[in-house]
Amino acid sequence: MSEEKSLNFIEEIISNDLAEGKYKSILTRFPPEPNGYLHIGHAKSICLNFGLANRFGGATNLRFDDTNPAKEEVEYVDSIKADVQWLGFDWVKECYASDYFEQLFQYAIQLIEKGLAYVDDSSAEEIALQKGTPTTPGTGNAFRNRSVSENLSLFTAMKEGKFEDGAKVLRAKIDLASPNMQLRDPLLYRIKRSHHHRTGDAWCIYPMYDFAHGQSDAIEQITHSICTLEFIPHRPLYDWGIEQLGLFPSKQYEFARLNMTYTIMSKRKLLQLVSEGHVTSWDDPRMPTISGMRRRGYTPHSIRDFCDRIGIAKRENIIDFSLLEFCVREHLNKIAQRRMVVTDPIKLIITNYDKGEEMLTSENNPEDAEGGLRAVPFSNELWVQRDDFMEEPTKKYFRLGPGLMVRLKSAYIIKCDRFEKDASGQVQTIYASYFSDSKSGSDTSGLHVKGTLHWVSAKHAVPVVLNEYDRLFSVEDVANAEGDFKDYINPNSLNIVTTAWAEPALLNDASEMRFQFLRKGYFYQDTTSTKTNLVFNRTVTLKDAWAKEQKK
Ligand code: ATP
Ligand code: MG
Predict the structure, then answer these.
(1) Which of 40, 45, 210 best tests ligand 1's pocket when mutated (most atoms within 8 Å of CB)?
(2) pLDDT at 5
(3) What would the pLDDT profile of 406-446 be if each residue is shown by its tens digit?
């Protein structure tokens, strides 16, 4: 982040806190629940939390908020760590809320001893009813008046597994008439026999999010605990727990969660896409997951740039997916190596080229002075794009057609002489002649042509498969669209191009290299790609074709 940029509201707060000497240094945390893969919304939170620490000379913990055993898995923990690292951030400590289970249990005992928590035998429905509504106060029940000693022995019995799942809960005793529903004796603990990915079967009671989160922040001495707007009503409860227990005064701040057009950000829905086979996996390149974007070829730099550009807001909004693609394009333009790949090929024979073949060179990246050159074999039989040829060229057509001249990229100027059709009437072969003195870099021909085409020497070409991706959904605001979100899945989100020829350099290029296939887009080798079956994912098109399409 540049220094001139004005501070956002959280930076203002931190800057003031530091100036006032409230904290010596700041500590933030990124607190994912390991119940799915991280998505671009999480990337926003990661960039924010780690970015603040970087900017103000503090540090960030990675905390797994693993208090809900049923849905959590080690696979998710591992993927989350890999994703945060890939984005370019290092945490100072790897923490697990489950490591605090004993401590949290002791905190609950302290609240009971202070008369601030009680065991309630009511069912979930009864509790909901007794809570009242935002306009009518809640009503207490007999359990609320249990003595400290009775509560202590019942809560201990809950922990020891003496009761059925759901038979009892521990509730905070705060204020049943509070205008803030969160303060109407919220649940602190529930009984749930479920295997936990770290603590196994040691516990049959688990703390609720509201009890675990603030206390975990305080245990780690987090100074600024940043979460999304829906937690604003929880803030008084967050402060209440810390105050009653006399813990480190962590403070909660809220910002608007990231929403984006043409996709969804809910882990639950993303899981549905995977489990019901609408996409192949969590890292399907169409997914808005960090792993999906990585596989598709997005760079960490471009994602960080995007998060920086959108800034942070105090109100819900929806960001255009094109902005993310703009950031990706901008970065790839600077770093991607240029290569030539022909799809929907048509044969072009240069009748007067009698050298057989020769090695030409082409620059790897015109945007990068240090990019260097690569060797590209040329011969008298080439593949060119079918859509670069017209039998009867229109007036301003600057590509191939009888009598027309073009430059072959990094090679020669050619003139199309004639063409041949197959039995079905399809153009099969184009015949051209070349100008031997028009070689790129040493052109003395004096000829001027408007069009430059990409090509591949037929006998040197290697076959490649291209995955062309489009939006996963066909409506802008998927989350708010009527009915089932899956009805809006774009049926054309993947187009697989199986007849494509590439220049042979691709065979020897490192798998993590980023490419611009000339006139086609940016591409990245898929994780399934092998030397004998090269597969590339289209990261993003060269231009924002989608925006144009929408305006039609
Ligand atoms: P989901 O609804 O997808 O399950 P979540 O908020 O439950 O999301 P967590 O694993 O609890 O997911 O989130 C970890 C952190 O990432 C939290 O601090 C949360 O606020 C933040 N976060 C999650 N989604 C977004 C988003 N769309 N924009 C910004 N931050 C987000
Ligand atoms: Mg959550």
Answers:
(1) 45
(2) 73
(3) 999 999 999 999 999 999 999 999 999 999 999 999 999 99
In the reported structure, the alpha carbon of residue 32 is separated from the centroid of ligand 2 by a whole-number distance in angstroms of: 7
**Cβ–ligand 1 contact at 194 (below 6 Å):** no
pLDDT beyond 80 at 544:
no
Ligand 2 midpoint to CA 239 (Å)? 19
Contact (Cβ atoms closer than 8 angstroms) between residue 480 and residue 266: no
CA of 201 relative to ligand 2 center, distance in Å: 23
Whether 9-255 shares its CATH topology with 267-337+464-550 is answered: no
Quick one: pLDDT at residue 1?
A: 45
* Residues around the ion ligand 2 (C-beta < 5 A): 33
Instruction: List, in sequence order, the alpha helices (H) in 88-206.
Output: 101-113, 124-130, 148-159
- CATH for the stretch 341-453: 2.40.240.10
Whether 213 lines ligand 1, by a CB cut-off of 6 Å, is: no
Domain 267-337+464-550 CATH class label: mainly alpha
pLDDT at 72 over 80: no
Binding site membership of 319 for ligand 1 (Cβ less than 6 Å)? no
101-113 as b/e: b if 16+ CB within 10 A: beebbebbbebbe
Structural domain 9-255, CATH architecture: 3-Layer(aba) Sandwich (3.40)
Q: What is the DSSP letter of 276?
A: T
Report the catalytic residues: 33, 257, 267
Which atom of ligand 1 approaches the CA of 231 most closely?
20
Query: Hey, CA dihedral for 178, 184, 185, 189, is it positive or negative?
Result: negative
Q: How far apart are CA 194 and CA 200, in angstroms?
A: 8
**What does the pLDDT look like over 261-315, one tens digit per residue?**
999 999 999 999 999 999 999 999 999 999 999 999 999 999 999 999 999 999 9
Binding site membership of 33 for ligand 1 (Cβ less than 6 Å): yes
Give the burial class of 223: count Cβ atoms within 10 A of its Cβ; 0-12 exposed, 13-18 middle, 19 or more buried: buried
pTM exceeds cut of 0.90: yes
Confidence of residue 550 (pLDDT cuts 50, 70, 90): low
Return the residue whose CA atom lies nearest to atom 13 of ligand 1.
32
- Residues 536, 526: contact at Cβ < 8 Å? yes
- Give the residue extent of every domain in the chain: 9-255, 267-337+464-550, 341-453
